[in-house]
Write a structure and sequence with these properties.
The structure holds two protein chains of two kinds. Chain A is mostly helical. Chain A has 14 helices and two strands, in the order ααββαααααααααααα. In chain A, strands 1-2 form a two-stranded antiparallel ribbon. Chain A is globular, with a radius of gyration of 23 Å. The longest helix of chain B has 30 residues. In chain B, α13 packs across α14. Chain B is built from 16 helices and twelve strands. The chains are: A mainly alpha, B alpha/beta. The interface between A and B is large, with 35 and 38 residues.
Chain lengths: 285, 391
Amino acid sequence: MLGEDGLQKWVFYIPVVFLCLFFVVPVALTSVWSVFERTTFWMEPGFTFFAYQNFFTSARAENYLFSMIHSAWAVLISFVLGFPIAVFVRRRVPRVAQHRVILLFILPFMISELVRVFAMRPVLGRYGIINNFLMQIGIINEPITVILFSPLGVIIGDVLSFLPFMVFAGFLSMEAVQNYIFEVCDDLGAGPVRTFRDVIVPLAAPGIFAGSVFIFVNGIGSALVPIILGGPGAVNAGLIVNQAIVALDFPLAMAISTIMIATLATLLLIGHRLFDLTKILEPIN
Amino acid sequence: MNQREFTRRALMQATAGAAALAALGRAGEAQAAEKLKLWAAGIHKVGAKDWSVMEAQAGIEIAYTTKSARADESIQKMVVGDGNKLFDAMTDNGGGMEDALASQKAIVPLDTSKIPNWKNILPAYHEGGAAAHSIRYEGKVYATPMISNADSMAYDYKKLGFHPDSWAVLFDAQFKGRAALQNDFGPTLTNMAIYLKQSGKIEIGDPSDMTPDEVKAVCQYLIDWKKKGQFRTFWDGFQNGVGILASGEVLVSSCWEPIQIIADRKTGDKADIRYGTMKEGHQVWNNILMLTKGGRARGADAAYYKLANLYLSPWFGARTLAGLGFGAQMTGVDEYINAHPKDFPPDKQKEIIDILTRKNARLAVKGNAWQNVFPKHLRAYQDWWSRLQAA
């Protein structure tokens, strides 16, 4: 029988087991299946790079690249909108109320993502709230159609769906920026812009990067936004995988998934080299 | 205890007793009824929000599991998954799925003599008929048809001011940015191929089963128009299809008939959304009910045949037509509707006749082509569709 010490020792292995079961094994299987041969309805063991060749020689690679570009824009806009909110809450809201204010950003997540994204249609549409308002006050004569069923519509949808990730991550990362740092900046005569650019952002960089990864991953993987707000045939990486599965092209779906994993692993590696992601946990330590 | 209290109490007791007896009776009936584990889409039932009316009419008990229309879901579940353990019967698209599942021995052939209403089946399903292939595999009947339709184009008559009779209206410059297509290469490429073939723009052999060069030509045509900004969006999913029409985002859209019906009901007097008949033709499809290998092994044949018999009864045909506007698969629907004015009052009858008249007009167009779930050059369809999406 295991004693208390033995049990405690094994408890530390639970994350390793979890990681193996739910990450290493699925990733390994996905990679192996991606080189299998496609059959009419399934796939059979083999070794071919046809699925990868098909991905890069059809327009799928182009679609994949577009979805990365749109997601990158969503990350940038979320940073511009979300990070100042996080800084403001840390700096200006009384400490006892900070967590409650941040919790307000969880509220949208209580509503299904489908409903949240679908609710953007009557807002952004040809006869939607924004267009009606702008026409009523005489700023425009014709409805603006570029904000819905377009790449811009997808970016707006991504930002509104995933902005809280940047606020949370920014808020956590601001733990690393102690109040005395602001005082030192003031004493040295650094203006707000310089303080933000040269002091706050570098110190909070690991958290900002983590928030950016969350948004980027959702932007390229979540199929709802391009389906509901995208233009004719708008897709992202998640939808490309979905469409391959619908067409029973399982090796292709696996190949695209492998490419997605490789892309994200590369991003994380670069992020880690640049910002040392272990620093995200430093304030907690 | 006063008289009033006594009466109320006695009434409640009597009611409770009667309800208990009724419940016992129903439980007894339910125990006696055959059970069928059915994997089907919600559109395959009529009469109530759940399957209770269908159960009562068929005289069976149905354990229902919701199913989408995705081919991959059926194949994964039935060919490589545990579908045969889970389900006795399932529904799907005819014209491909019955071949796929029968070739993989996931479904079993039927004895149509055990379906009394089989005698009412539309002549198109008789051997040699236009729809015969959609329920057969290697000459044997593997499926019972339930609903069908010829997909077309919805349009807002109030805004257009005329009734379009050609797919060409999707490419009309005056509707630039106000046209939409379905975001599914199957029906969209088939309908566009029908249009391009019949209008003489592109030479195409079989719009249901195009060669890679034909697929390329159709997609390049669509890519050109997409680049010109002709399409507002490619809709995906029922609610999306309804939303773009009902909100006025698009004025013309290729879509399923129920989308037009619901969009029109939603807009009331603001718009007049109608479903056209295209002179070039339409993609014709049906949904079918199949008995799984597992279902036969468990002895679910009798329950399957009872449900199949219900699907071929004018009772079901009239209701599916009146509800979502799907085509009935049997003869005698008109007579049934006329004979049941309580269920179908005159205004409803008129509405049904309108739908039926339009449907028959669509089905009569020479250029129609059947849905093909698995065309020979499926990869060409996939690859060119991704090019269209990227364009």
